[in-house]
Amino acid sequence: MAENKLYEILGVPRGADEQTIKKSYKKLAKEFHPDKNPTAGDKFKDISFAYEVLSDSKKRRVYDQYGLKGVQEGVGEGRMSTDDIFSDLFGCGGGLFGGLAGFGGGMGRRKPTRGEDTVHHLKVTLEDMYNGKTTKLQQSKKVKCSACGGLGGAEGAVVRCRGCRGVGMKIVLRQLVPGLSQQIQTPCEDCQGTGEVINEKDRCTTCNGKKIISEQKILEVHIDKGMQNNQKILFRGESDQMPGCQAGDVVILLQQKPHDVFQRNNDHLHMTTKIGLAEALCGMDIIVRHLDGRHLHVKHPAGHIIRPGDIKAIAGEGMPQYRNPFEKGNLYIKFEVTFPEDHFASEQVLKQLESVFPPRPKLKIPKDSMEVDLEEYDPDHNTSSSRTGKSYSSDEDEMQGQPGLSCAQQ
Ligand SMILES: [Zn+2]
Ligand SMILES: [Zn+2]
């Protein structure tokens, strides 16, 4: 398991002391320096790299334990403490859950990770998306304990757990049946899987050695004009902080509440309005209260008919475009025409009314025609089909005699 390559490059034994390593490096560097030995460029680089690692006690320790991969994972950058190295190697949280995956997958294979993002759903009105709004959101978030600087205790009080050598996991043999046992990983009970221990008396009293504390934080969410449903607003690095890893983002996911009047389709707005027959035929005037409180006086001149289901557009009265709010989509109005009640006018008035409409088509009534009544159609209780069914069972002769009629009735 132990990797020896860097020692071999420098031609020293694994346990060699600093002096030996330095001496050997100097000798080899002279020998293979590109000025003297132009064909040995790579060899010189290897020597330099091996020395860089082995001459640095921290990097050397990582190399001895995790090999080249451990060094390449950024462990040798010198800005992290050994504790950070462990949490980085084993994923965020550095503890039990991150440790399981990291340990099983081979040491140092994982890149230093980010914490999880926190997603908040924020309900907003269409008015907010039209006008823009700033909302304050209170967030409970875990932050590095400032009392101990995220160490969990006084400097030096945190020590690597001996039981698991700082890994947080132990491999134990479990007997399945006599003679057959299985190697399993379990979290180290000495350190609860964290890989480190702090003496009770040295523990930070603010975070109780947990390194993080909960904090209430106010996020100011700017809902810009024209933002869309499901649009995300990111707060980089504002999610929970964990020791030794980069905090994730807080993601605000906008959720538009349904609006009583308007439906939105990208930058366009749609609405439906009911008008009477007089407005449909003789000119129309309606007031639409817009999302910013303005009243639009919508006029349609007499002589232009509005038919049921017609859709008309008002240019530039839709939603503002995101990041270009002076440009707006259109407002589309769909018209439903409400017809008058039965008997809304006397027969005499109806005759007068009819005189202004285009004349009826001339009707030729065949001699053998038969008068029938129209009934209301009820989709749940279809009277005409039940009557047809009855005819079939009781009046078969009649039906056979007049097949044309039965068709017409249906
Ligand atoms: Zn332990
Ligand atoms: Zn603390």
Automatic annotation (TrEMBL):
<feature type="domain" description="J">
    <location>
        <begin position="5"/>
        <end position="67"/>
    </location>
</feature>
<dbReference type="InterPro" id="IPR001305">
    <property type="entry name" value="HSP_DnaJ_Cys-rich_dom"/>
</dbReference>
<dbReference type="GO" id="GO:0030544">
    <property type="term" value="F:Hsp70 protein binding"/>
</dbReference>
<feature type="zinc finger region" description="CR-type">
    <location>
        <begin position="132"/>
        <end position="216"/>
    </location>
</feature>
<dbReference type="InterPro" id="IPR036869">
    <property type="entry name" value="J_dom_sf"/>
</dbReference>
<dbReference type="InterPro" id="IPR044713">
    <property type="entry name" value="DNJA1/2-like"/>
</dbReference>
<keyword id="KW-0143">Chaperone</keyword>
<keyword id="KW-0863">Zinc-finger</keyword>
<protein>
    <submittedName>
        <fullName>DnaJ homolog subfamily A member 2</fullName>
    </submittedName>
</protein>
<dbReference type="GO" id="GO:0005524">
    <property type="term" value="F:ATP binding"/>
</dbReference>
<dbReference type="GO" id="GO:0051082">
    <property type="term" value="F:unfolded protein binding"/>
</dbReference>
<keyword id="KW-0862">Zinc</keyword>
<dbReference type="InterPro" id="IPR008971">
    <property type="entry name" value="HSP40/DnaJ_pept-bd"/>
</dbReference>
<dbReference type="InterPro" id="IPR036410">
    <property type="entry name" value="HSP_DnaJ_Cys-rich_dom_sf"/>
</dbReference>
<keyword id="KW-0449">Lipoprotein</keyword>
<dbReference type="GO" id="GO:0009408">
    <property type="term" value="P:response to heat"/>
</dbReference>
<feature type="region of interest" description="Disordered">
    <location>
        <begin position="360"/>
        <end position="410"/>
    </location>
</feature>
<dbReference type="InterPro" id="IPR002939">
    <property type="entry name" value="DnaJ_C"/>
</dbReference>
<dbReference type="GO" id="GO:0006457">
    <property type="term" value="P:protein folding"/>
</dbReference>
<feature type="domain" description="CR-type">
    <location>
        <begin position="132"/>
        <end position="216"/>
    </location>
</feature>
<keyword id="KW-0479">Metal-binding</keyword>
<keyword id="KW-0488">Methylation</keyword>
<dbReference type="Pfam" id="PF01556">
    <property type="entry name" value="DnaJ_C"/>
</dbReference>
<dbReference type="InterPro" id="IPR012724">
    <property type="entry name" value="DnaJ"/>
</dbReference>
<dbReference type="InterPro" id="IPR018253">
    <property type="entry name" value="DnaJ_domain_CS"/>
</dbReference>
<keyword id="KW-0636">Prenylation</keyword>
<keyword id="KW-0677">Repeat</keyword>
<dbReference type="Pfam" id="PF00684">
    <property type="entry name" value="DnaJ_CXXCXGXG"/>
</dbReference>
<dbReference type="InterPro" id="IPR001623">
    <property type="entry name" value="DnaJ_domain"/>
</dbReference>
<dbReference type="GO" id="GO:0008270">
    <property type="term" value="F:zinc ion binding"/>
</dbReference>
<dbReference type="Pfam" id="PF00226">
    <property type="entry name" value="DnaJ"/>
</dbReference>
